[in-house]
Design a protein that fits this description.
Layout: H1 5-13, E1 21-27, H2 28-36, H3 39-42, E2 47-54, H4 56-59, H5 62-74, E3 77-82, H6 100-105, E4 110-113, H7 116-125, E5 130-137, H8 139-152, E6 157-163, H9 167-175, E7 183-187, H10 188-194, H11 200-204, E8 210-213, H12 217-233, E9 238-241, H13 252-261, E10 262-269, E11 273-282, H14 291-294, H15 315-319, H16 351-357
Parallel strand pairs: 1-2, 1-7, 3-4, 3-5, 5-6, 7-8, 8-9
Antiparallel strand pairs: 10-11
Helix pairs in contact: 1-12, 8-13
């Protein structure tokens, strides 16, 4: 019989833990489950759970959001995007629309969708209009977009692609020399698509304990226990604590769609900069559906702080696990879900939004 969450907690509490051990959970979905289940307070005090760079809305390049806004305002198009993207703020003057939501209020035809099939439906229902799909997300979101392309994308549907791979951001942290964590819990949904082997580098190259986890407290606690045991025993391996879904090799069909539709390129992460080989771009044979090759560029390098987080926002440090959400100076002060200043307060995968929803509403007080 599989262990319960209570039993996993008891096993963790029975370990001879060091004075401090830091576990990074890469995924925003993991952070949401951890916070909602109260796992931080349930675990021994010397275990730190650190949110990682697994929020696609948080790291979507500011210039991509700006381009989507300008396309919607200045071209005769219908723009569709995943709902969370509509509220992401950009660094524009207050007199101008600073989000897709504000651009919609200014008259642009912008529609929230939940899946690529909805983008296809909008394009088919509006054959005389150009429809632009602003497709931001990680592998689990980009794979269905790639499948849409392979299945035959409508002629009037263009893509503003802002897809990213998850693992290169973790690799960047590990190669920085100061990663800020001792063990890693990898995202189960990404491993379902790409295979758990994608995370083997954490063990082989950096000698850190690692485990793939699902999104229930049971799966997360099993992964925590596994990495803690590895850390204590000095044995390093990649454990699969989500075997009911994550299989060796991942999903070959999804990987095939990605490989045929897209190539992996260097890509910008908001507030972080360019991470090598971390983004998806449409292959040349699908250039007719690349909005950047159909419409003029709306990149405006004269904008102040182009590509960065808004002034005062420390979302980049939160995403990289360098600070906790409530250690940001504007958390709960100027920045909240009703009036988000930074992207981490927008999405329900953003650590700041998750902590706010859990009742953390004020910044951490500085120690005297």
């Amino acid at each position: 019989m599989a262990a319960t969450a209570k039993e996993w907690l008891q096993r963790i509490r029975g370990l001879e833990l060091p004075e401090r051990v830091r576990i990074m959970n890469v995924c925003g979905g993991h952070e949401r489950s951890i916070t909602q289940a109260g796992l931080r307070s349930a675990l021994p005090h010397n275990i730190e759970l650190i949110p990682g760079p697994g929020c696609p809305v948080c790291i979507c390049p500011e210039e991509d959001v700006y381009e989507a806004i300008q396309l919607a305002l200045n071209e005769d198009i219908i723009l569709v995007a995943f709902g969370d993207m509509l509220r992401v703020p950009v660094n524009a003057p207050k007199r101008e629309p600073r989000s897709l939501e504000q651009a919609k209020a200014a008259g642009a035809d912008i529609r929230p969708i939940a899946s690529p099939t909805e983008a296809v439906r909008v394009a088919n229902e509006n054959p005389d209009n150009t429809v632009v799909f602003f497709a931001a997300g990680f592998e689990t979101t980009t794979a269905p977009v790639a499948a849409m392309v392979q299945e035959g994308i409508p002629a009037n549907l263009l893509l503003l692609l802002s897809g990213r791979l998850t693992w290169p951001a973790v690799a960047m942290l590990l190669e920085s020399g100061t990663p800020g964590f001792d063990t890693l819990v990898a995202p189960g949904h990404v491993a379902t698509v790409m295979g758990p082997e994608e995370w083997q580098f954490v063990v082989d190259k950096h000698q850190l304990p690692a485990a793939v986890s699902g999104f229930t407290p049971v799966s997360l606690l099993a992964a925590f226990y596994s990495t803690l045991r590895q850390f204590i025993d000095g044995k390093r391996f990649l454990d699969n604590c989500y075997p009911e879904v994550v299989k060796p090799g991942g999903n070959p069909q999804a990987q095939s769609h990605l490989g045929k539709s897209m190539e992996v390129v260097d890509a910008t992460w908001r507030g972080i900069g360019v991470i090598p080989q971390s983004g998806f771009a449409l292959r040349e044979q699908y250039a007719a559906h690349d909005v950047r090759k159909t419409f003029p560029s709306y990149a405006d390098d004269s904008r102040k702080r182009v590509g960065e987080m808004p002034p005062g926002c420390q979302c980049a440090e939160v995403v990289l696990g360098k600070i906790y959400p409530n250690q940001c100076k504007i958390f709960g002060v100027g920045c909240n879900p009703r009036h988000p200043i930074g992207p981490c307060m927008v999405s329900d995968e953003g650590a700041c939004r998750i902590w706010w929803a859990a009742g953390v509403r004020e910044p951490e007080k500085a120690s005297a």
